[in-house]
Amino acid sequence: MNDASGSGSEGLLYLTDEQLRKGIEAMFFAYRGFTADPDKILQEMGFGRAHHRALHFIHRTPGTTVNNLLTTLGVTKQSLNRVLRTLVDEGLVESRVGNRDKRERNLRLTEKGAALESRLSEAQRRRMRAAYRAAGPEAVAGFRKVLEEMMDADMRRRFQAGKEGSP
Amino acid sequence: MNDASGSGSEGLLYLTDEQLRKGIEAMFFAYRGFTADPDKILQEMGFGRAHHRALHFIHRTPGTTVNNLLTTLGVTKQSLNRVLRTLVDEGLVESRVGNRDKRERNLRLTEKGAALESRLSEAQRRRMRAAYRAAGPEAVAGFRKVLEEMMDADMRRRFQAGKEGSP
DNA sequence: AATTTTATGTCAGCCTTGTTGACTTTCCAA
DNA sequence: TTGGAAAGTCAACAAGGCTGACATAAAATT
What we know:
With 167 residues, chain A is mostly helical. The first copy, chain A, is 66% helix and 6% strand. Chain A has helices at residues 17-45, 49-60, 66-73, 77-89, 111-135, 137-150, 153-161, and strands at residues 93-97, 105-109.
């Protein structure tokens, strides 16, 4: 199962267990870095990573419903509700009764919520921008490609759905 | 701050906020996929992700000390200790008093621990292998490059340290 | 019109995994 | 011999997952 250095049949020599393990570790360490900057900001505001995720996706799809957010985030409604309630209570998110379907709640960021989201996002983008710059355009394309392949199929579909019309 | 589609000064046109945001989301969804398979196994065994991380790094550096593991994992000793204790109690990890320094504990996997680690790792590697295969060698190189750039500097150093002699 | 389903919210309670703070034991090294 | 590092332990707490049960309103179906 382990092919330390041999040239595989079709240029697949890079797929040794050791290489894969390094990839796994890289993913672990990188994700830590990825969340480090927003985490600092969140902590001083008394929020957590869960709040950040909610803010991010409400920003991304204004007017989204609770159910929608639920499946995107992959948590239970009780878990999301707790987060959402504090965000509404603190005046960061607005929850309005739906037009067509009055059972639904349409979620959007308030000005205050948008401000925090922007601050968090900017911190995270700063790091990603630096990483992208240092790695170069081709590396970025590869990065994105591998990440997409790593997603669960249904999430990949959801993710790729918002691709074409990225004006 | 937003350059929707313009060709930047030096081919940096890909660094729009929108592109960066997509990168952020990709990271989020991919990490979920990345942990999904081991998580399933862990749950049916009554362990959590923290146990997996400990097993992984003890496997990677047998005989490592608690302090070493502490800085690698980036958690407090109390937090790690709880995880470590259950692993020792369940007979997955052996904690032996150090030779030179008897204050230290040298950690290694038992046969049982190695078996679980291998099972978890194989599940994770299976997904990563599939992603690597689908994305191709160049994408993989870029993926690794960006991930390394995304790490905190000290973690990047630690990570890159185990690179040369990877046979 | 009556019934069922859906979307959401909420209460209660549990688990994992992170945190701080205080304190002890061991034992190396200056 | 004494200071400090390494490790462990106890207690208390918080975030953020989870399940289960139940309430309400609105929509959809029969």
